[in-house]
Amino acid sequence: MRRGPDWQGLVFCLCVALAWETTARQELLPPRLFPALSSVLVQLAEGTATGALPGALAKTLGCMGAGLLAAASMIPLGIWAGRSQRVWPTIGPAVEFLRSLPPALMALPAMLLLGIGDAPKIFAVFFAASFPILLSSMDGVRAIPPLFLDTAETLHIKPRAMLFEVLLPAAAPGVFSGLKTALPMAFIVAMVSEMIGGADGIGHLLLRSQRSFDIPQLYAIILVVAITGGIFAYALCRIESSCLRWYSGWKGGAGQPSE
Amino acid sequence: MKYFVASLLLLCTLASAQAESIRIGFIPIADCLQLYVAEELGYFKAQGLVVDKTPMNGGSLIAMAVEGGELDIGWSNTASLAIAEDRGFEFVILSPGAFEQDPDRREHSLLVAKDSPIRTVADLKGKTVGINALGNINEIAVAALAAQHGLSVKQLRLVEMPFPQMEAALTSRHVDAVLALEPFVTIARGRGATRVLEPAAFKPFGKRMLIAAWFAKRSWLDKHKAAAAAFALAMRNASAYIEKNPAQARELLTRHTKLNRGLTQQMTLPLFAQKVEDSDVQELINQAARFGYLKKAFPAQRLNPR
Questions:
Q1: Residues 6+ apart with CB under 8 A from A117
Q2: Which of A45, A61, A138, A202 could be disulfide-bonded to A81 (CB atoms 3.0-4.6 Å)?
Q3: d(CA B10, CA B78)
Q4: Rounded CA gap, B21 and A119, in Å?
């Protein structure tokens, strides 16, 4: 599949940046509440140079990583649920109920129970990321073409090989789609937790900038968050396409059951 | 045609006779007592003002709304006004709000849990301290108290939490100390779950200091001099009333805040003085600059033009 030329996207980004700069310079919005992009970029450079922004970001990403690592335990559970007839009927109703909660909401009870520090942040991230990972791992297993499983069984493949060479690779597209939902959600929840009862991290810094009228820094932090989110999305896409090389070639091709 | 002109004239007179309406942002707490008094006792009406008041959650939200033009007059702690001034915002004080005066009008205290091992402010090194908003007057007070005990504020972990949640956060050990405000100091003392670590948390700012003020944008003031003067006079009358009739003022407080009657009778009220002197603000500005919250100290007169 050929992608369109990249310069189109770049030109559009430049247009948005130019619109921002012009709107701010013409003072179409209250100027102290909406500074020009150029002054935000200066702030961004300063914050990066002093280490304040990278330090806060590292703190947030650390908690987010810990929560995601915990949530990765949902991959085996999801695979089990996808294979077994009993697991989902047992946990399904509870999972459906809990996952309807907006994940950012969990930051509050997490704080009440776990106090202030990293623990409530990590828990909130785990809570938010678990459900998409669990459900899409399960769906990933269920979506495995019966042909794969039948072939494996006919060949009397050992359980260990069945798991690592058939189930896991075949369920990987599902797992990745879950990760694609979970990653941005984890980032959001980590920052929200820092804004309510956090003592550090990028969310805390954002709140502090607003409280102390440091508006350029507030926008600089939003830019940092946007750039980080973009890098995540890009990296995940790259990892996915390298892990799933077989899948993009196979998708919709021969091997689909004809009935 | 005659009717048309007549009705047009009538409309014009109606418009001009209509009292000037001002939009005020405040926080529904004891420190905003002047506003409740001025409204209930008709001090605004006497000055020809119609007041549209909006309760809000925090001083920085009020300041943004005043800057954006959704509010004409706001209420904010003095330190935040100084920080805003330092960042190029142009807010000016229209009328003083509440004052802290040592030792009889002490509103802010540093509390710890009753069985806490913390004995002095110096023991707070590396500990978590709850304040109601980051980077406001309370954070600067913590910074100043810490400095008096040889600590930098960077050696503490500051966490934002609303005043009503502080006592529970202390007793459940989620924070090690809090900077509490009346009536929460009185409540916490009454229940006996906390201990006062430093009774006069605002002492570094001087014996008498301005905690908060009613402010507007300089550009609004320039266009609404009469309304601003009328507002200031109504507030001054309210302050005089509170100081002369504390019992009645406490009754009004019960009606306008969620505090119960027993508490409004018991709690320490701030001082409501007639006039704000530069000396009520200057030490706070100096301390804020000393601990890096301002790029540079400036004369209090810039916030408090007379």
A1: A199, B128
A2: A138
A3: 45
A4: 50
Domains of chain B: 2-101+209-302 (3.40.190.10), 108-201 (3.40.190.10)
Q: Which residues of A touch B174 (CB under 8 A)?
A: 111, 115-116
Measured in angstroms, the CA of B41 and the nearest CA of chain A are apart by: 34
Q: In chain B, which residue's Cα lies nearest the Cα of A118?
A: B174
Among A231, A232, A226, A118, which residue's Cα sits nearest to residue A181? Answer: A232
Please give the backbone phi and psi of residue B145, each rounded to the nearest 5 degrees, phi first.
-65, -40
Residues of B in contact with A221 (CB under 8 A): none
Mean pLDDT of chain B: 90
Q: Is residue A74 part of a domain?
A: yes
CA-based max dimension of chain B? 85
CB B260 within 8 A of CB B254: yes
Distance CA A194, CA A118 (A): 9
User: Which helix H or strand E contains B229, and what residues bound it?
Assistant: helix B225-244
Q: Residue B12: pLDDT above 70?
A: no
- Position B154, amino acid: K
Q: CB-based burial of residue A179 (10 Å sphere; 0-12 exposed, 13-18 middle, 19+ buried)?
A: buried
A213 touches chain B (CB under 8 A): yes
In a domain, A93, yes or no: yes
ipTM above 0.85, yes or no: no
The C-alpha atoms of residue A120 and residue A196 are separated, in whole angstroms, by 11
**CA dihedral of residues A106, A112, B28, A218 (deg, nearest 10):** -60
User: Could you give the percent of chain B with pLDDT greater than 70?
Assistant: 93
Do the chains contact at A211 and B133, CB–CB below 8 Å?
yes
Residue in A33, A211, A215 nearest the CB of B136? A211
Residue A46 near chain B (CB below 8 Å)? no
Among chain B, residues having any CB pair with chain A shorter than 8 Å are: 58, 60, 63-64, 67-69, 80, 83-84, 87-89, 128, 133-136, 157-161, 169, 172-175, 293
Kindly report, residue by residue over A97-113, the tens digit of the pLDDT.
998 888 888 888 888 78
pLDDT exceeds 90 at position A248: no
Where residue B48 falls (left for φ over 0; alpha for ψ -120 to 50; beta otherwise) is left
Domain that holds residue A156: 40-245
Domain count, chain A: 1
Of B68, B135, B157, the CB nearest to A211: B135
